[in-house]
């Protein structure tokens, strides 16, 4: 279960006076979850009672969340953290990471791919808008269960666009291996690390050529690995380029 102390903190962050959900948003969104899960929330309407029983909107949010089962609480807090209004909010980002790290076993809708790694990669890709846009396209396909060659096409293109931007050239991914090794060495990476990344990119390219360019049949079980290794490439390259 999710301890009440965590729900208290989640309520404080998500219901923050200046940057959090409004009273009407809290009532509307939690009522909708109540409808979905057939649960009555204590404060389904806004404005909240003015008799002193509800001191503030954060209190209402916390009590509404407490009405749900642990798996439902996980889903609600996670989805509230992912609302557009919280983009760039570091406190909300940290809350979501703690939720996934500590209570990920409650996630009944979990994608096999590492969510923390994905969130971190998206964070690092800000500033590389072309690559981020294609990366998010691949992620959207993954979330919706669209396991087709276009998903891996997007991943490959996202990595290629990032490497082109960092190395300031127009080469295809296959032709970046030497330049990539030089880049890693110049940025205080070891020769062995450079060789490893060259090999990984080479294998990535060969995999794509075999299963994407020339064959529509993608092995679904391997998509998690491809997604995560691509994300790791991106994070490391961007960090080295700082």
Explain briefly what this protein structure is:
The chain is mainly α and 242 residues long. Helices cover 65% and strands 0% of the residues.
Folded structure, characterized:
This protein is mostly helical and 242 residues long. The chain folds into 2 domains: 4-106, no CATH class; 115-240. It has 11 helices and no strands. The longest helix is centred in the C-terminal third of the chain and has 23 residues, at 191-213. The radius of gyration is 22 Å and the shape is elongated. The relative contact order is 0.09.
Layout: helices, strands, pairs:
Elements: H1 4-14, H2 23-37, H3 57-66, H4 70-81, H5 90-103, H6 115-125, H7 129-143, H8 149-167, H9 177-186, H10 191-213, H11 223-240
Helix pairs in contact: 1-3, 2-3, 4-5, 6-11, 7-8, 8-10, 8-11, 9-10
Percent of residues in helices comes to: 55-70%
Question: What is the helix tally?
Answer: 11
Query: Domains counted in the coordinates: how many?
Result: 2
Mean pLDDT across residues: 88
The residue ranges in which pLDDT falls below 50 over 5 or more consecutive positions are none
Strand content: under 5%
Query: Distance between the terminal alpha carbons, to the nearest Å?
Result: 40 Å
What does the oligomeric state look like here? Answer: single chain
> Major sheet: size, sense and barrel closure?
none
Count the E strands: 0
Shape: elongated
Q: Radius of gyration, Cα only, in angstroms?
A: 22 Å
């Amino acid at each position: 279960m999710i301890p009440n102390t965590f729900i208290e903190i989640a309520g404080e962050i998500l219901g923050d006076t200046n940057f959090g959900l409004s009273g009407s948003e809290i009532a509307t969104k939690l009522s909708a979850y109540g409808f979905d899960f057939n649960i009555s929330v204590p404060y389904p309407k806004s404005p909240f009672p003015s008799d002193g029983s509800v001191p503030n909107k954060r209190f209402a949010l916390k009590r509404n969340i407490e009405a749900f089962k642990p798996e439902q609480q996980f889903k609600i807090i996670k989805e509230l953290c992912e609302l557009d209004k919280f983009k760039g909010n570091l406190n909300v980002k940290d809350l979501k990471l703690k939720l996934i790290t500590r209570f990920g076993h409650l996630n009944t809708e979990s994608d096999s791919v590492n969510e923390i790694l994905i969130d971190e990669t998206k964070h690092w890709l800000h500033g590389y808008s072309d690559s981020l846009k294609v990366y998010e396209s691949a992620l959207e396909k993954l979330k919706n269960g669209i396991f087709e060659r276009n998903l891996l096409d997007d991943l490959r293109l996202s990595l290629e666009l990032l490497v082109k931007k960092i190395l300031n050239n127009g080469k295809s991914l296959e032709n970046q291996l030497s330049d990539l090794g030089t880049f890693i060495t110049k940025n205080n990476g070891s020769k062995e690390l450079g060789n490893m990344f060259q090999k990984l990119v080479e294998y990535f390219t060969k995999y794509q050529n075999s299963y994407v360019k020339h064959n529509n049949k993608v092995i679904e079980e391997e998509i998690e690995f491809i997604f995560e290794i691509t994300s790791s490439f991106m994070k490391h390259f961007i960090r080295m380029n700082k």
